[in-house]
Design goal:
Number of domains: 1
Shape: globular
Radius of gyration: 15 Å
CATH topology: Rossmann fold
Protein name: Arsenate reductase ArsC
Order of helices and strands: EHEHEEHHH
Strand order of the largest sheet: 2-1-3-4
Keywords: Oxidoreductase
EC number: 1.20.4.4
Helix content: 25-40%
CATH superfamily: Response regulator
Organism: Massilia orientalis
Largest sheet: 4 strands, parallel
Amino acid sequence: MNILFLCTGNSCRSLISEAVFNHLAPAGWRALSAGSHPTGRLNARALALLAAKGIPTDGYYSKSWDGLPITPDVVVTVCDSAAGETCPAYLGPVLRTHWGVEDPSHVNGTEAEIDAAFERAYAILRARIEAFLALPPERLAGDRAAFKAALDHIGKLDGSMP
């Protein structure tokens, strides 16, 4: 199964999602991340956070959704539309869901406040990815509507729920 984590800049939230998913996913499952308007660089704090968690990021880079090497089965947008952020709309015959997360790279404050924002985004994304990976395989292969409903429900997890 191929998963695409999509946002606008592909420097922070989608990167975190790609790295965490690939770190936890079973063999044969793969995540990529991309942006509709990639920044061309990965966020240094996001990379440092992932390194501190023991999650490799070798070979990752900020990339466009144009010309991806795979066709995704599932597209997960992670932009924060609640904050007025424009989410890219992936067109194509894929299952789509939205897991909006506040962009920690836009947080202003003390170093501790910024670090806390990155930790919060990581916790939310990791909880959602763990919930995705815990879905029963028969649900993934069977009823597409039930799979979509499960993914949409996962998008509401806030990182503190099991």
